[in-house]
């Protein structure tokens, strides 16, 4: 077998009568997990039936080394249905892949009820450095994907690495690449997640299902913050167990419209209420996610297939700033997508054309104005909740919109014999244009440096001054702003694969250019496979590849935006003065001139060995990441500004060693793998910490006043040194099937932000008045090891005709173990055992 396109080759998308011999051939060498006879038409003699655009072959091992040499893991619809979670996510499927790490929040209460897809790190890459593809075109978000502020960012809204959140029920096939990635993929230094949405088949079929969980079906552990009686505050109240619920409802129906045209329709709705502790009380955050997909598939003659799809996937989040009064906000995300794909099988050549348009948004509605009050007679909710200052308000309305149009063309030649060599080629081109808009329609004031003064006179100004209690001596000003930036991209890629006896080798190149960084990036791709004994029992692979990252438009937006500036004021005879713009220190601007594109050089070696009826895979992946973005801060220049100048001084290294074994025994599927990995880095991510910190930019760490930026190289996530996963699925009968998954994650150290504050140095407020700064406390934390078991069972009850009632039960964290998401000495809630119930009708 030779390399295939990202999507299943056209030769596998022909009429079922044409593909049936191939299925029978596959069945003769691979033991099927289930027989999909119900998907076959009654009359196999007719070549005019609708093409089976997604063939469900007997279940085989999803990945490893294989003949191609690429680090490809392929999951068909059987895998998605067996290991996909009841909540509509692909988390259970991704756990079967060595080298994938989940973030620490994935096991928290918020993580278990968050409707956004779980973030993942692939082969040491940061979670936003992956490439996401749906139906041949990109689904990656470039609007501040690393921000974890949710709706709480001053200059941005918590982003996500995916533009649209698709329900697992829409996906017919999933491909994940963790190493030796083909040249057809670019714009990443982590890995690739390529999804193909479902297509209509030769007969009508439908599904209606509902699943859900609620607080009455879950166990929780609550923890109360440590209290110092000498602090002067009241003892903290223990957080109450959360009252929450989450459900998911979905419907899809596909049917042939004619002998050569089929339509698939899918609608899903998800809802959750997530508990959180704020100001000593438990409140819920509400999320809603919808998916609507229409996909028309048509055979145009005997050699071509056309897919046209429209997707609507809005996301809504109702939340609040933690420990901040009157801070409720609403964030709207997601968006729209239109795509068309055309595949044509010529004489010895296969053609693929994909054209798409996508619009995704991050819009926020929130109170305009943020106040960090000292605790006084009328402002003391911070003291009552033992969280330091009495904070109030929000960061105002904000709109961020991403719109992209892209076109991709790929050509693959069928294998050609040249003497003892078997050769085939792949070439392709991609072009795209994107626009990104940032719109703040009202000036925002963020107040800090509150000064207690029992004699202060506010002159009737109540929003930033409390008569005879306190007033603010400083504030940051974010002017109203409306900026649009654009990006043009182009890429060319080519690969040639040659097979000679037991040896197969691939050499490829990929060229990328965009008009933001203006770099001509040429990446080499190479991999080789040796079938040691010529019987596919033992294979050895090696690869040496370079991957260039994508141009995140967060940078370009920051450069185009108007910078914030500071204002100060004092008092004269206890009467507050007018605000004045701060001078001498200078305002910040961003500069991204003459920087290189970050890249990753990868070296891979691996062995695949048949063992005990399954396949054992051993693989070592080493990556050297260079030219990663970092920053240099200048002093005040002649124009009155200080500059954050981006440079390429960031770097990181990754080494991962994985050992896995997969087997299919009749109706039993077993997957076991363990990974040891180590990641060293001198920069945490691309984000600038100043936008998320107080004006001082300093914090307290180990009792010392240190710059916040110095903590970046110490913080870590997605970096558990040891991860072991065991997945098991078994079909007991046509009616009963079950799965189990156990996952161990080793312990590690990280730096944690606390809710405590301490006094720092005496500083000049800007008006000549000396005040005492307050520093947020950061401390070391040992993340404990976790061992969690998930179980699930499905029972099918045949009804009239071909309809089947399906009842399911899923138990997450079945042994009710600790997940260690609440830091020692802090208040919080941890989830334990959690039940999901589902009920569906297949017809």
TrEMBL record:
Keyword flag Signal: yes
Listed InterPro entries: Beta-barrel_TonB_sf
SUPFAM superfamilies registered for this protein in UniProt: Porins (SSF56935)
Domain of life: Bacteria
Subcellular location: Cell outer membrane
Location of the region described as Disordered in the Swiss-Prot/TrEMBL record: 225-244
Keyword tags: Cell outer membrane, Membrane, Signal
Signal peptide boundaries: 1-37
Statement: the UniProt record of this protein carries the keyword Membrane: yes
Name by which UniProt lists this protein: TonB-dependent receptor plug domain-containing protein
């Amino acid at each position: 077998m030779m390399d295939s396109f990202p999507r299943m080759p056209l030769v596998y998308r022909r009429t079922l009568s044409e593909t049936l011999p191939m299925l029978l051939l596959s069945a003769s060498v691979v033991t099927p997990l289930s027989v999909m006879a119900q998907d076959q038409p009654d009359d196999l003699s007719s070549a005019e039936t609708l093409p089976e655009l997604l063939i469900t072959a007997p279940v085989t091992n999803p990945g490893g080394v294989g003949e191609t040499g690429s680090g490809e893991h392929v999951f068909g619809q059987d895998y998605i249905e067996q290991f996909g979670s009841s909540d509509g996510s692909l988390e259970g499927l991704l756990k079967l892949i060595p080298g994938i790490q989940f973030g620490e929040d994935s096991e928290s209460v918020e993580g278990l009820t968050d409707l956004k897809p779980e973030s993942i790190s692939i082969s040491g890459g940061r979670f936003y450095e992956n490439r996401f593809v749906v139906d041949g075109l990109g689904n990656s978000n470039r609007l501040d994907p690393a921000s974890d502020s949710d709706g709480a960012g001053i200059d941005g809204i918590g982003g996500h690495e995916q533009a649209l959140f698709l329900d697992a029920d829409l996906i017919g096939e999933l491909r994940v690449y963790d190493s030796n990635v083909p040249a057809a993929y670019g714009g990443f230094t982590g890995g690739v997640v390529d999804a193909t949405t479902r297509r209509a088949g030769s007969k009508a079929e439908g599904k209606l299902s509902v699943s859900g969980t609620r607080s009455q079906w879950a166990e929780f552990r609550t923890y109360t913050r440590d209290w110092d009686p000498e602090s002067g505050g009241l003892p903290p109240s223990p957080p109450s167990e959360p009252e929450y619920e989450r459900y998911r409802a979905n419907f899809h129906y596909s049917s042939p419209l004619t002998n050569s045209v089929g339509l698939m329709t899918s609608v899903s709705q998800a809802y959750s209420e997530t508990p959180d502790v704020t100001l000593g009380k438990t409140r819920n955050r509400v999320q809603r996610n919808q998916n609507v997909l229409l996909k028309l598939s048509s055979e145009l003659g005997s050699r071509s297939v056309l897919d046209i799809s429209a997707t609507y996937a809005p996301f809504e989040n109702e939340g609040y700033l933690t420990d901040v009064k009157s801070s409720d906000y609403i964030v709207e995300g997601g968006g729209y997508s239109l795509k068309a794909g055309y595949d044509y099988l010529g004489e010895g050549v296969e053609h693929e054309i994909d054209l798409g348009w996508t619009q995704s948004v991050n819009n926020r509605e929130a109170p305009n104005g943020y106040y960090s009050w000292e605790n006084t007679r009328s402002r003391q909710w911070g003291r009552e909740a033992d969280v330091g200052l009495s904070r109030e308000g929000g960061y105002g309305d904000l709109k961020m919109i991403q719109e992209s149009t892209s076109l991709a063309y790929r050509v693959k030649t069928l294998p050609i014999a040249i003497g003892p060599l078997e050769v085939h080629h792949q070439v392709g081109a991609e072009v795209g244009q994107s626009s990104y808009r940032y719109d703040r329609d009202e000036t925002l004031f963020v107040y800090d440096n509150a000064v207690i003064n029992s004699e202060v006179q506010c002159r009737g100004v109540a929003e930033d001054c409390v008569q005879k209690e306190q007033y603010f001596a400083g504030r940051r000003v974010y002017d109203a702003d409306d900026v649009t930036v654009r990006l043009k991209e182009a890429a060319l890629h080519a690969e040639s694969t040659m097979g000679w006896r037991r040896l197969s080798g691939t050499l490829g190149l990929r060229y990328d250019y965009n008009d933001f960084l203006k770099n001509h990036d040429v990446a080499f791709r190479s991999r080789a496979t040796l079938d040691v004994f010529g019987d596919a029992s033992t294979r050895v692979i090696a690869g040496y590849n370079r991957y260039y990252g994508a141009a995140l438009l967060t940078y370009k937006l920051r450069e185009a935006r108007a910078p914030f500036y500071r204002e100060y004021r004092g008092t004269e005879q206890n009467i507050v003065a007018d605000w004045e713009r701060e001078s001498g220190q200078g305002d910040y601007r961003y500069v991204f001139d003459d920087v290189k594109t970050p890249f990753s050089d990868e070296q891979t070696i691996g062995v695949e060995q048949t063992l005990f009826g399954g396949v054992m895979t051993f693989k070592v992946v080493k990556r050297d990441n260079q030219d990663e973005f970092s920053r240099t801060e200048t002093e005040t220049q002649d124009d009155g500004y200080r500059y954050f100048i981006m440079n390429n001084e960031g770097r990181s290294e990754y080494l991962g060693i994985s050992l896995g074994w997969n087997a299919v025994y009749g109706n039993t599927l077993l997957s076991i793998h363990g990974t040891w990995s180590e990641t060293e880095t001198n920069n945490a991510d691309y984000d600038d910490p100043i936008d998320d910190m107080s004006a001082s930019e300093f914090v307290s760490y180990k009792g010392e006043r240190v710059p916040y930026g110095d903590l970046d190289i110490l913080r870590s996530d997605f970096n558990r040194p040891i991860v072991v996963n065991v997945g098991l699925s078994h079909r007991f009968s046509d009616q009963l099937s079950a799965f189990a998954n156990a996952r161990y994650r080793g312990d590690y150290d990280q730096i944690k932000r606390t809710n405590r504050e301490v006094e720092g140095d005496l500083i000049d407020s800007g008006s000549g008045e000396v005040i005492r700064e307050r520093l947020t406390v950061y401390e070391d934390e040992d993340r404990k090891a976790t061992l969690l078991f998930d179980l699930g069972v499905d029972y099918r009850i045949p009804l009239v005709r071909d309809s089947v009632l399906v009842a399911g039960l899923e138990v997450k964290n079945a042994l009710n173990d600790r997940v260690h998401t609440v830091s020692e000495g802090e208040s919080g809630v941890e989830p334990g055992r959690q039940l999901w119930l589902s009920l569906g009708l297949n017809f």
